[in-house]
């Protein structure tokens, strides 16, 4: 079922400083910062030849990464996103296997404008997994 | 400088259970478990179309992932490995930029038999970065 790794998301407390480190120290190609208020983050895309890293900074009072940054004030890897061809089939496969889908179980529109679901990290050994239909 | 994402490493307390979850629940192609006593881990490769996830379980008393699992008993994303074409040039670029290379600064032979270095997570917003010469 799992397709490509679409991105690895890294939560950071200071997006400008993190962007500079990836661009200037690591020599990666980085995008301009993009505010996504409906997702509670500002994002910078780090373009690698085979996938993306997304640097996320909290935006607004209800940011979904705020609690993570409280626990990990320096930042850290927040989730990994895999592509799937059919988000509903993927959801049903997860539920049939006893894995928990976060929220109400219905796909939401993710930061790339495509249907996404998040799986409970406790069911996957501490890793928050996003599934994105592409 | 940064090339492909070679792998994302996930530390897990129970490799057999994690392998089953990736294979049976997520429907991924997984390798047989491979013990790497000189690296203090047993590894299973999760093969995605564009990169790999490596599931790591501690092996032996000096495992480099033991402290991480003490802090994160359920497991979690441990590091991300980027490919570089010249590990010495990459090391010198890191040091010139003021980033810290772990250990004595000399590349070691990594789990894939290639020269690797690890960068200090405090210099990269809580993310442990491995550079591998390919």
TrEMBL record, chains A, B:
Documented EC number(s): 5.1.99.1
Swiss-Prot/TrEMBL GO biological process terms: L-methylmalonyl-CoA metabolic process
Alphabetically ordered keywords of this record: Cobalt, Isomerase, Metal-binding
Pfam families assigned: Glyoxalase_4
Reaction catalysed by this enzyme: (R)-methylmalonyl-CoA = (S)-methylmalonyl-CoA
Domain of life per record: Bacteria
GO function term, MF aspect, one: methylmalonyl-CoA epimerase activity
Enzyme class: isomerase
VOC domain boundaries: 4-134
Listed InterPro entries: Glyas_Bleomycin-R_OHBP_Dase, MeMalonyl-CoA_epimerase, MMCE/EMCE_epimerase, VOC_core
Family the entry assigns: Belongs to the methylmalonyl-CoA epimerase family.
Protein name: methylmalonyl-CoA epimerase
């Amino acid at each position: 079922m799992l397709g490509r790794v679409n991105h690895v998301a890294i939560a950071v407390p200071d997006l400008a400083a993190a962007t500079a480190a990836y661009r200037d120290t690591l020599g990666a190609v980085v995008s301009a910062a993009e505010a996504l208020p409906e997702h509670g983050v500002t994002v910078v895309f780090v373009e690698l030849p085979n996938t993306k890293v997304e640097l996320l900074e909290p935006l607004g009072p209800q940011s979904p990464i705020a609690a993570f940054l409280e626990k990990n004030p320096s930042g850290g890897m927040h989730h990994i996103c895999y592509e799937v061809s059919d988000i509903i089939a993927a959801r049903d496969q997860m539920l049939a296997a006893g894995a928990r889908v976060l929220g109400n179980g219905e796909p939401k529109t993710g930061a790339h404008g495509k249907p996404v679901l998040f799986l409970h990290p406790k069911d996957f050994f501490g890793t928050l997994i996003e599934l994105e239909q592409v």
